[in-house]
Amino acid sequence: MKRSIALPVAAGLVALALSLASCSGSTGTGTGGKDEYVSGGTFTLAVGNDPGDLNPFKAVQFETWDFVALTYESLMYIDPDGKQVPWMASDWTENGTTATFTIKDGITCDDGTKFTAQTAADNLNYNADPDNATFSYGSSIDESVSATADGNTLTVTSKETNPFLAVNVGTIAMVCAAGLKDTSTLSDGANSTGLYKLTSVKAGDTYTLTKRDDYTWGPDDVTSDTVGLPNTIRLQVIPDESTRANLLLSGDLNAASVAGADRSRLDAAGLSSADVRNSVGEMLFNERDGRPFSDPLVREALTLALNREEIAPVVADDAEIPAVSLITKSPFLCVADKPNWTLPDTDLDKAAQLLDQAGWSKGADGKRSKNGKPLTIKFIYDAATSSHAAAAELVQKTWNQLGVTTKLSANDAADWSDQLYSTFDWDTGWIQIAPGGPVVLSTFFAGATPEKGGLNFMFVDNPEYNALAAKAKKTADADEACSIWQDAEKELIDRVDVFPLTDQTLPTYQSGAVFEKPNELQPTTIRMLK
User: Fold this and answer.
1) Alpha-carbon distance 189 to 509, whole Å?
2) Residue ranges of the Solute-binding protein family domain (predicted)?
3) Containing domain of residue 437, as a range?
4) How many domains does the chain have?
């Protein structure tokens, strides 16, 4: 069994699920030598949507986490190979209930104040308070965890045995004291220890960060004087993939993810890339009372009807790879070498029988209905993902054969948040979450619903999964806990609470620079090329 350590921050919300260390292409400082690096200049990273609210405690969109990764730091860094590297902490130890970190000397915030072990403890205690409802709460940390400081020593104690305590708290984004005192200031600003300081915000357009000259505590001894670092980082909102590809080829962009047909142009031009896994074909279901997919027979029927061999190359733009786990964030906590579950073969006849069994009968017009109500499915997908629309049309065509009325809806960033967390007006679609470990995954499938402040926007209530998740969380041995988590994941697949139709390899192309991107692009690893 492969057991890696999770990067629990940024489980992400919807639209584009990212990661995979083991499928990485050329990444970061592994490409080129120091003689090829040149310091200074501007490094420009394109994202598909505006980051929105910049508060790292509340971040859910992938673009927000792109910003958070450029700005905030954590006690340890997880490289693309899954190695834990000292960052704000020089070393640490753990025994299952206690993790002890030594905070490096000389760390300062972008406002000039000192970052101490006490600041780190305040961060962890803030995240552990359920009243603060941070994204890390319930996945990386909860009220069973508390932190204290004594000089440079940070001690984290858990009331419950936790085999992943150090890495869970060690990868939480750290905010400086002023930001903790008034978190509202973080929504359109930043207060961090990062190598780069936020200096300009043009919402919907460009976010500019400038290199500090007093930074000494980076991973692998990176400082402000490390050769190859840019003076400025610019996060630019560019929704169109073809535009991003053109700007990469012209050298006006240094980094951008391109998943669609434009990949061929970039590959032909010889651009290198940092590759991650993207669960582009993952389907989630609205199981809220009154929606069609609240009936497991309907979920089983409509997924059973799908021809994965036909749809997978379309949604993955001919870069499909089989899904192996619902854990897709590097570096893969509790992911086995092969899945613990299997997906059924396509069977339209059985799908029709299941719909009949569920009470959705075909009328003379060929359309299915129950009690006079037509079987209508609202299928949502990411407007910015070039392959989503064509693949959604294939799904629509298949379901039409069963007598299902399928309405396709392209979402932008605002639509995702509104439909999944406010109006609940959706049924299924190309919707992905991107957890780094099973505990993060459980916040979506076993946690509270949005109406109660949680992330379970699918309204899943799977008793078998819930029981296994509860058992795994109390298991002290890491290997045993992972085995239970894998059984829990199987329960989600078997009950069709999620349908991982296919994954793909998603590259972030590099032009005029190299970098590491274990999940999000890491600014301390950027090296500008001559």
Assistant:
1) 28
2) 84-447
3) 285-505
4) 2
